């Protein structure tokens, strides 16, 4: 009997794994749906497995131009000094693109990142943040001479108060 | 009569006692990968998770991947109790590392699994920095809660807390892992197949040329676009065909080695080192040990290089090594946890 219960629960779990993989939005199924969605998040059964699918997107980067009192400019990043960190920081920067229709939330992100950079440069007077998206030509276009480039998506300048 | 045969096969599929060694390999490998990950993240730990980091204050709660309560909520809760953020973060991280060492050594493995799963959920469950590897780590750690991962190569076995005898529970866990991986790869392949980039070669081109992933200058691929196209098609076939390729004994070895090759490619050309290692580890634990055992006995049977000199009457070489050989299921043996 214990085995049958265990098997039943196992099959139910695997069914939910399939449902998660189909990217079905469980929250539309009322209270039960919310419970299932929460269970999916805790156990991983709600995972979508859509890595690099259906297409490989364009990465973003945040570039900071830090200007000190003598107008010297230093270029900075968010700390992509290591492979594992670069991937994680890259996800934070990608969150900016997800807020394409929400200027307020974009501003909040830009302010947060700028504050973080400014703590590293206590003498900085001004900071310009630039969000750029990598534009890689297709195989065909690259062969015909088109070059990759960084397209500007957003730019803001912050000036330290008290000057 | 036929129903009885089906029932017998069904029970054998799920319950034929098996060794827990592949699960122990998964436990040790996962712990090592996560310890390496922790080592690399440690220098920027507070930048990623702290309130004065890249996402300041409440933004950590606003920008998230799921509705799960995470580290931010824990920090807020502990602040109400008078415990500072730094203390909460450090204690959580220490608990995570402690759990990982417990898993690595197989010391009170179940408790270590619970601790690791819970703390990993805190750090990665909803955090905006999570990526592909965290998905599979989360799934694996959840399975560690109830799989007999401490029943081999562990201090629990050495101290007599756990037996290393083959069990039905190990077989069951083994099957769940196999099915979970098959579903994951199948849908990975299907989702990719819905995008034109995977058919015309652009997906491979972009994967190896994007600044975040590029490890070498492979711009010369634009002169040989067929390489990207073939690699894209190959990826689709390997991923979407994973369930069948791994289930069918005659294709399992080829499929396993091809999947390992695919992830080695990701390791080398995209720099997704931990993700690639984790995926190789999962497939090896679920499907690959029998193939590897066989290949180590007879390297000439490596696909593509193989010259099969077996007499026609020889038994299939796709067999489980000794520890997986079927044992009679003792009468009345149920499930032991």
Structure described in brief:
The complex is a heterodimer of chains A (163) and B (337). Chain A has 163 residues and is α+β, with helices and mostly antiparallel strands. Chain A has helices at residues 2-21, 30-43, 83-98, 103-120, 139-143; strands at residues 60-68, 73-76, 124-135, 149-159.
Poorly predicted runs of 5 or more residues of chain B: 304-337
Range of strand content of chain B:
under 5%
Could you give the count of β-strands of chain B? 0
What structural class should be given to the helix and strand makeup of chain B?
A: mainly alpha
- Sheet of most strands of chain B: none
Task: Give a verbal description of the structure.
- The complex is a heterodimer of chains A (163) and B (337).
- Chain A is an alpha+beta fold and 163 residues long.
- Chain A folds into 2 domains: 2-52, no CATH class; 60-159, no CATH class.
- Chain A has helices spanning 2-21, 30-43, 83-98, 103-120, 139-143, and strands at 60-68, 73-76, 124-135, 149-159.
- With 337 residues, chain B is mainly α.
- Chain B has helices at 2-15, 21-41, 45-49, 59-62, 71-80, 85-105, 109-124, 132-144, 155-158, 168-193, 197-200, 202-209, 225-240, 242-247, 249-270, 273-297.
- The longest helix of chain B has 26 residues, at 168-193.
- The chains are: A alpha+beta (163), B mainly alpha (337).
- Chains A and B meet through helix 1, helix 2, helix 3, helix 4 and helix 5 of A and helix 2, helix 8, helix 10, helix 11 and helix 12 of B.
SSE diagram, text form:
The complex is a heterodimer of chains A (163) and B (337).
Chain A: H1 2-21, H2 30-43, E1 60-68, E2 73-76, H3 83-98, H4 103-120, E3 124-135, H5 139-143, E4 149-159
Antiparallel strand pairs in A: 1-2, 1-3, 3-4
Chain B: H1 2-15, H2 21-41, H3 45-49, H4 59-62, H5 71-80, H6 85-105, H7 109-124, H8 132-144, H9 155-158, H10 168-193, H11 197-200, H12 202-209, H13 225-240, H14 242-247, H15 249-270, H16 273-297
């Amino acid at each position: 009997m214990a085995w049958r219960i265990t098997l039943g629960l196992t099959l139910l779990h695997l069914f939910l794994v399939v449902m998660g993989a189909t990217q079905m939005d469980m929250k539309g199924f009322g209270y039960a749906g919310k419970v299932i969605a929460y269970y999916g998040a805790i156990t991983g059964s709600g995972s979508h497995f859509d890595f690099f699918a259906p297409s490989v997107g364009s990465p973003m980067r945040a570039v900071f131009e830090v200007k000190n009192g003598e107008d010297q400019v230093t270029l900075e990043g968010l700390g992509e000094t290591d492979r594992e960190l670069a991937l994680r920081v890259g996800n934070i920067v990608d969150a900016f693109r997800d807020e394409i229709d929400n200027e307020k939330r974009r501003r909040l992100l830009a302010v947060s990142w700028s504050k973080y950079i400014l703590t590293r440069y206590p003498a900085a007077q001004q900071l310009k943040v630039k969000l750029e998206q990598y534009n890689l030509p297709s195989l065909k276009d690259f062969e015909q001479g088109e070059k990759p480039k960084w397209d500007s998506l957003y730019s803001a300048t912050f000036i330290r108060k008290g000057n | 009569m036929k129903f009885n045969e089906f029932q017998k096969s069904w029970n054998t599929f799920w319950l034929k006692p098996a060794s827990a060694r592949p699960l122990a390999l998964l436990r040790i490998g996962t712990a090592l990968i996560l310890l390496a990950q922790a080592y690399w993240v440690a220098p920027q730990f507070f930048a990623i998770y702290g309130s004065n980091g890249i996402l300041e204050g409440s933004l950590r709660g606003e920008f998230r991947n799921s509705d799960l309560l995470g580290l931010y909520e824990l920090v807020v809760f502990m602040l109400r109790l008078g415990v500072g953020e730094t203390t909460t973060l450090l204690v959580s991280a220490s608990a995570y590392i402690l759990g990982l060492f417990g898993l690595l050594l197989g010391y009170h493995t179940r408790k270590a699994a619970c601790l690791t799963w819970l703390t990993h959920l805190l750090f990665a469950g909803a955090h905006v920095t999570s990526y592909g590897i965290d998905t599979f780590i989360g799934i694996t750690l959840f399975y560690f809660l109830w799989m007999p991962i401490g029943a081999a190569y562990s201090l629990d076995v050495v101290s007599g807390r756990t037996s290393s005898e083959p069990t039905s529970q190990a077989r069951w866990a083994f099957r769940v892992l196999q099915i979970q991986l098959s579903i994951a790869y199948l849908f990975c392949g299907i989702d990719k197949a819905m995008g034109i980039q995977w058919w015309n070669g652009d997906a491979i081109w972009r994967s190896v040329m994007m600044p975040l992933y590029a490890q070498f200058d492979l711009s010369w691929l634009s002169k040989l676009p067929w390489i990207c196209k073939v690699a894209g098609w190959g990826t689709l076939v390997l991923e979407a065909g994973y369930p069948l390729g791994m289930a069918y004994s005659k294709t399992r070895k080829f499929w396993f080695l091809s999947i390992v090759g695919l992830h080695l490619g990701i390791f080398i050309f995209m720099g997704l080192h931990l993700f690639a290692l984790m995926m190789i580890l999962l497939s090896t634990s679920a499907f690959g040990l029998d193939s590897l055992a066989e290949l180590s006995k007879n390297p000439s049977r490596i696909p593509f290089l193989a010259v099969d000199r077996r007499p026609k009457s020889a038994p299939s070489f796709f067999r489980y090594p000794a520890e997986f050989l079927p044992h009679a299921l003792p009468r009345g043996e149920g499930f032991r946890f």
